[in-house]
Amino acid sequence: MRLSRYFLPTLKEAPSDAQIVSHQLMLRAGMIKQEAAGIYAWLPLGLRVLNRIEQIVREEQERAGAVELLMPTLQLADLWRESGRYDAYGPEMLRITDRHERELLYGPTNEEMITDIFRSFVKSYKSLPLNLFHIQWKFRDERRPRFGVMRGREFLMKDAYSFDIDEASARRAYNRMFVAYLNTFARLGLKAVPMRADTGPIGGELSHEFIVLADTGESQVFCDKALVEMPAPGPDVDWNDLQSIVDGRTSLYAATEEMHDAAQFESQTAEGDRLSARGIEVGHIFYFGTKYSAPMKARVAGPDGVDTDVHMGSYGVGVSRLLGAIIEASHDDAGIIWPDAVAPFDVVVINLRANDPSVCEACEAAVDALEKAGKSVLYDDTDERPGGKFATADLIGIPWQLVIGPKGVAEGVVELKRRATGEKSTVPLAAALEAIG
Ligand code: 5CA
């Protein structure tokens, strides 16, 4: 992608209403534009990262056995009346009336709709266990939308819903999502800690929030320090028996403020291991049994032929919020430092003299070689001065910078810089390509 043909509206200064660094950097890096409070347009650079995060979330859901579908953003109010949540949800729900005076709402979550889909088609325990997910925009009319995509009103969520014949099987579904979340956040370059949490308007008794520690986080959290550095289980686990992995985490103390029990924290955790910090909730998983299936009559025939209400759980990831969380965890004074797995481009090739045909030729050869090696490349072919180009490259956080100027062309070398460490080397193009991998 040639920068001269791209759309990257970077800003020198962040607007003064952007309070936290991730919001400031997303605006400055030309990733998003606010259209209304808590409602953002995703500009090309932001969209590339959003798509990459979404894809990693999708892959890990599928690995854990969940099946993707897509439900609409608009839902019928009557469906929510069946569960009793239409009135209970309150002013956070955006209510809409169509031309036939039918009451609709912009979905803040999808328990009712997925339960309706399930009951329409699934009649037997033989179809279970089943886990269906989608990645779809949600709307919550938050009282205080703030911090950019971190607490938006319109935001992208992955929400999965599991259906099982009984509680034991539903807990296995819960464990699969628990492990899938650990793997997902690790792939995104994040250290996310599962913590006992309040179930709020979704309901049920068992839930865990996945929290990324950050000073700018909205939640106060308490946990054993050991949880922060615990490596993710990875994909090679026995997906049918994850209890020991889950127990390995849940046996250590970790709770959000609403669930915090200071006495228990102190008795369970040695003083030096206690961590009290701020955190960002990037995911939340729930087991709520028959809370929706019973009133909505989502039943299947069991092995004995008797109909039973299915046991359900739901599992959310804040896909758009994750951009903010990743930036909070990975930036410096010069800008964003994208982890390789979610970077909008793998490499930026910086042409130091865009009016010099030999430099252009060398840059084009480098872009070509990188693309042939499967790398995505942003080629800064603009006629801006070098200082400005370096600043933009640092700001937008692309993991590798390949700098080519007349001197290097004369000597047959390029300058390679790793954004995360600032480490630079002057090497022949072939060596740079090898380092990039
Ligand atoms: N139905 C359940 C699970 S699918 C549910 O809605 N859970 S939730 O309310 O906890 O939301 C799931 C995730 O969405 C949260 O963990 C959070 O990461 C993200 N999220 C929630 N509200 C917002 C918001 N206003 N802006 C951005 N992300 C949000």
UniProtKB/TrEMBL annotation:
Keyword Aminoacyl-tRNA synthetase found: yes
Enzyme Commission (EC) number: 6.1.1.15
Aminoacyl-transfer RNA synthetases class-II family profile domain ranges (all copies): 38-339
Catalytic activity of the protein: tRNA(Pro) + L-proline + ATP = L-prolyl-tRNA(Pro) + AMP + diphosphate
Keywords linked to the UniProt accession: Aminoacyl-tRNA synthetase, ATP-binding, Cytoplasm, Ligase, Nucleotide-binding, Protein biosynthesis
Nucleotide-binding among keywords: yes
Subcellular location: Cytoplasm
Signal peptide, first to last residue: none
Chain's role: Catalyzes the attachment of proline to tRNA(Pro) in a two-step reaction: proline is first activated by ATP to form Pro-AMP and then transferred to the acceptor end of tRNA(Pro).
HAMAP family referenced in this protein's UniProt entry, alphabetically: Pro_tRNA_synth_type2
NCBIfam families found in the cross-reference section: PRK12325.1, proS_fam_II
Complex and partners: Homodimer.
Name of the featured protein: Proline--tRNA ligase
Species assigned in the record: Brevundimonas subvibrioides
